[in-house]
UniProtKB/TrEMBL annotation:
EC numbers for this chain: 2.6.1.16
The protein's name in its UniProt record: Glutamine--fructose-6-phosphate aminotransferase [isomerizing]
Subunit-level organization: Homodimer.
Entry GO MF terms: glutamine-fructose-6-phosphate transaminase (isomerizing) activity
Keywords, alphabetical: Aminotransferase, Cytoplasm, Glutamine amidotransferase, Repeat, Transferase
Transmembrane region(s): none
Reaction equations catalysed: D-fructose 6-phosphate + L-glutamine = D-glucosamine 6-phosphate + L-glutamate
Role played: Catalyzes the first step in hexosamine metabolism, converting fructose-6P into glucosamine-6P using glutamine as a nitrogen source.
Residues represented out of the complete protein: 246 to 612 of 612
Active site, renumbered: 362 (for fru-6p isomerization activity)
Subcellular location: Cytoplasm
The SIS domain, residue ranges: 43-182, 215-357
Primary localisation category: cytoplasm
Length: 367
């Protein structure tokens, strides 16, 4: 069946807008809303015995893995190692028996990730994979297949596969916590409730499309852009920078907000837009003080936060993008939307080939 763009100008745009639907679709196979429980596919190994997780992936899928590390460690107290697939085998990783190796891939075919999977299999790891193509090589090689139900993703820059990966990984981390006796029924019900709020919050984030399109003209002339975030939203800063590089060809870097002062602050002047991802919450104050260090040096800030955050810190920013107020668990899903839209509209403003950016491939099947 040919996949059509419908009323959208680009596949990437269509895929960004599909996220509320496909995330809901994905969550349906990992949650039982009626019972307020997390429900995973039949697992024939003992989760409570797993004392270490190794996550391996590339590109956007790697950033989903980085977010998942926060969740596995926070909820299930399992230490997580994470590597780029292209680096993994070459550091001679220590793989102790009983570890779980988790591979994240839209295509299920990325050569480096597949090679890492085979290496882990040969070294006694239980193999789980979060893939969007259930007939892929990674899917076939896995003990535990955790499909994302994003549907075919055509745009080279990954969008909907990412948020669906996050949905699966959040459910998986909660499941681990339950099995390890670290999450009681009430806490599990809370997690389910917050995850089920994600589709509506993604919709609310998408409502800012026009505003972000207008703002894109402020970013399009820049030569460099910085993205800052903290905690589980730090990987979103990396993902935001990656999206911008991929499709608009503007140099961008993602940084952990607190690490700014150890280098990148030297780059700040009024020609470098700084995109700050800062949902209100326990890490907000700290991020804002990093943001103010940027402003004090003439940096032009775009603050992406909720109404509370913007009321507290929006003054003096070049622009603000208001996200719905969400539970920290789903913030990485919701904050993916404005960074995707910003990259998209900057690319459109620059007239690049959004769906087929130069030098990039949808699936990289060479190592
Ligand atoms: C390519 C794509 C990216 C993707 C990465 C990993 O570089 O252009 O969008 O994130 O591969 O692909 P995978 O299919 O393994 O998630």
């Amino acid at each position: 069946v040919a996949i059509e763009k419908g009323n959208y100008r680009h596949f990437m745009q269509k895929e960004i807008f599909e996220q509320p639907t496909v995330v809901a679709q994905t969550l349906r196979s990992y949650l039982r809303p009626g019972e307020q429980r997390v429900a995973l596919p039949q697992i024939d190994f003992d989760i409570s015995a797993i004392d270490r997780i190794t996550i391996v992936a590339c590109g956007t899928s790697y950033y989903a893995g980085m977010v998942a590390k926060y969740w596995f460690e926070q909820f299930a107290r399992v230490p997580v190692d994470i590597d780029f697939a292209s680096e993994f085998r070459y550091r001679d990783p220590i793989l102790t028996p009983g570890g779980l190796a988790l591979f994240i891939s839209q295509s299920g075919e990325t050569a480096d990730t597949l090679a890492a999977l085979k290496h882990c299999k040969a070294n006694g790891q239980v193999i789980a994979s979060v893939v969007n193509v259930p007939t892929s090589s990674m899917a076939r090689e896995s003990d535990l297949l955790l499909p994302t139900h994003a549907g075919p993703e055509i745009g080279v820059a990954s969008t909907k596969a990412f948020t669906c990966q996050l949905a699966v990984l959040a459910a998986l981390a909660a499941h681990f916590a339950v099995k390890k006796g670290l999450m009681d029924r009430e806490e599990e019900a809370e997690v389910v409730k917050h995850l089920l709020e994600a589709p509506a919050s993604l919709n609310a984030a998408l409502d800012h499309d026009d505003e972000i399109a207008d703002m894109a003209h402020l970013i399009a002339p820049a030569r460099d852009v910085l993205y800052l975030g903290r905690g589980a939203d730090f990987p979103l800063a990396l993902e935001g920078a990656l999206k911008l590089k991929e499709i608009s060809y503007i140099h961008a870097e993602g940084y952990a907000s607190g690490e700014m002062k150890h280098g990148p602050i030297a780059l700040i002047d009024d020609a470098v837009p700084v995109i700050v991802l800062a949902p209100s919450g326990p890490l907000f104050e700290k991020t804002v003080s990093n943001m103010q260090e940027v402003q004090a040096r003439g940096g032009k800030v775009v603050l992406i936060s909720d109404a509370d955050g913007i009321a507290q810190a929006g003054e003096g920013c070049m622009a603000v993008i208001e996200m719905p107020k969400v539970h920290p668990l789903i913030a990485p899903l919701v904050y993916a939307v404005p960074v995707q839209l910003l990259a998209y509209h900057v690319a459109v403003a620059k007239g690049t080939d959004v769906d087929q950016p130069r030098n990039l491939a949808k699936s990289v099947t060479v190592e």
